[in-house]
Structure formats: C-alpha cells, structure tokens
Amino acid sequence: MVAEENWNFVFLATLKLYWKLLFSGNLYYARQAVINLAGNVVMFIPLGFFLPAIWSGCRKFLRLIAVSVSLVFLIETLQYVTGLGSCDVDDLLLNIPGIIIGYFIWKIIVRKRR
Fold first, then answer.
1. In a domain, 95, yes or no
2. Is residue 3 part of a domain?
C-alpha cells in the first residue's frame, strides 16, 4: 500500500512549497528547499550528457527530450508503485532542465573535438 505522503499529483504544488520555504526566514527550511531543487536538476545532468554520447538516436534535441521525459515518467511511476522514494509530478519539471544542461555540455564538447 502506498502512503499518501509519498506522492504528489498536483502540478506545481511542490515548487510553490519550496518557493515559500526559500523565503520563509528559516535557514534550515530554505537550505532543504535549495538542496531539493538543485538536486533534482543536477542529478539529471549526466542523463542529458551520456544518453546522446552512447546512443546516436538521442543526438537530436527533441528525441532526447522525448526519451528523457519517458524515463523520468517511468522512474516516478516506479516510485509510486513500489512506495520507494516519492512520486512527484514537479520532479519532471525539475529534471528536464538538468537533462537540457547535460545535452548542451555534450554538444559543446562534441563541437570542440571537431
């Protein structure tokens, strides 16, 4: 059985909470918000970098985004089904910028090597 506190299907709810915590005046809560926000972005930079590096099918930006969104959706679904971690629709919004950053790092490296 999945505990209710382990999932969020309300779009932008978590981001609004983190935004409030950032400016709450409580340094502990603000720090936790920054760690969660930055962590969700930074954690997916390697996916954006390595996916096009090892799979030529993901060297086009839109294909990479489609495959990455599918992978993140799978991860969130597994978290919901297993009850491990937390399933949050806002994670998708936070993971995509990391994937994009990783992709552009890969793109820059590829261009410099040519």
1. yes
2. no
